[in-house]
Amino acid sequence: MNVIRSIIYMVWLYGWMAILAILALPTLLLPRGAILWFIRLYARLVLLGLRWICGIQVEFRGRQHVPGGPVLIAGKHQAMLDVFVPFLVFDDPVLVMKRELLWYPALGWYAMKTRMLAIDRSGGAKTMKMMLAAAEKRVKGETRQMLIYPEGTRTLPGAEPDYKPAGVRAFYKSLGVPMVPFATNSGLCWPARGFVRTPGRIVYEVLPPIDPDLAPKAMLVELQDKLEAGSDALLEEGLEAQGRSRSDLQ
Question: How far apart are CA 175 and CA 154, in angstroms?
Fold first, then answer.
């Protein structure tokens, strides 16, 4: 049954993506806010389909912890869903994305129009310097919230954390803004790989911010402690909702 539901949901997911990508074409000539309206509409349709088709509820917590003004968000990344959700939680998020995605039809156009931050993962020190300058312009100059994933890629629920400290330290030191851990258990219902969605409850939780004036090493320790503890708590809650235990994740 989950396989059939998931196939129907894939049609829903990519069908609406294609429809809205076409309907939103005129917004390429309008201010950035017009495109953000379409992106938020799509994110809501993503969650609506999860509930109606797959039996997955999505809950948001801790919005009171988002500081006003520019902020750096460090998220746990377990599913493609994590890319859509920030547009429903934060006012004007900046997502860090692979530069190659800019060449995708529609996706690349809208990413450039909304001024997402495209990075060259193979670049050297000069590329990093340009990227930090672009991040400062978007976060401080445009008063936006920048989302990064400290582990660099999607991870399995309950897996040992594998943080990539260089990028996190660079953004934290350069921007000098509060860092907000963003925990989730999304991988329990939406797999990092594969398409079969499992019924249950996905929770995204904004945790209390980390002070912008810490030493980079102290910041990394506090970030990992908070983000892993928060995500582990949501993992246990999600497993209980599904009637499973950690041994089922092995």
Answer: 25
**Nearest-angstrom CA–CA distance, 212 and 118:** 24
End-to-end CA distance of the chain: 23
User: Which residue type does 83 have?
Assistant: V
The phi and psi torsions of 231 (rounded to 5 degrees) equal: -70, -35
Q: Name, in order, each residue with C-beta under 8 angstroms of 179's C-beta and a sequence gap of 6 or more.
A: 71, 72, 73, 74, 172, 209, 210, 212, 219, 223
Multiple choice CATH, 58-249, 2.60.40.1180, 3.40.47.10, 3.40.50.1260, 3.40.1130.10: 3.40.1130.10
216/61 Cα distance (integer angstroms): 27
Which residue type occupies 149? Y
pTM for the complete prediction? 0.92
**pLDDT (0 to 100) of residue 71:** 93
What φ, ψ does residue 155 adopt, rounded to 5°? -125, 160
Q: What is the dihedral of CA 164, 131, 67, 93, to 10 degrees?
A: -100
Q: What is the pLDDT of residues 2-25, one digit of tens each?
A: 899 999 999 999 999 999 999 999
Domain positions in the chain are: 58-249
Q: Which two tokens stand for residue 127?
A: 């590329």
* Amino acid letter for position 151: E
| CA gap 100, 117 in Å, rounded | 12
